[in-house]
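Q: For a teaching session next week I want to show students how multiple molecules come together into a single three-dimensional assembly. I've collected the sequence lines for a complex. Could you give me the predicted structure tokens for the whole thing so I can convert them for display?
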Amino acid sequence: QVQLQESGPGLVKPSQTLSLTCTVSGGSIGSDGYYWNWIRQHPGKGLEWIGYIYHSGSTYYNPSLKSRFTISLDTSKKQFSLKVMSVTAADTAVYYCARGSYQFLYVWGQGTLVTVSS
Amino acid sequence: QLVLTQSPSASASLGASVKLTCTLSSGHSSYAIAWHQHQPEKGPRHLMSLNSDGRHFKGDGIPDRFSGSSSGAERYLTISSLQSDDEADYYCQTWDTGTQVFGGGTKLTVL
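A: Of course. Below is the structure for the complete assembly, covering every listed component.
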């Protein structure tokens, strides 16, 4: 059974770049039909989809977000990553990774809290 | 623009049933959705996908107490025989031109 686990720094200073990794276990990251997603939840708010990467490396991002987000894939390590440039306090959130189809999200990680503060 | 609308809160008694609603915006009434359960301090959990005709496909291990139905632009999640650990936030989710969209979530309180 596939499992996803996020990892990251926990605390990031404003203007720095946030880097998060999602490690996939119990399944292949390179299989057809799977989309690897990042989602975040601001404190006390709902879920916000950030974007996905397909096993081919193609990416798609939430059009409502500014272009500070980059998702990449490392199939040899069974990981995919999220980078957020020039973070501010508004990027403080719990970040989740998830596996899905083109339509829906099916398997979620447990999430990792990122706080942006000096 | 595709929007999913959910009531912010709902409550029901232990052992009772509750029906949560997700409403698709105008022009999108044929869309399928998914329901996710988000318990405190845990990652969300996919419950089911739900078509406009009411057919639903549950995730592995999801109890029979969880069911879905549809009427027009509304998608429903019914939880029967409520248990204390059903207390959670419930989100509906769908997609449009590659973008995943979430409803605002319903916080379910089990009394």
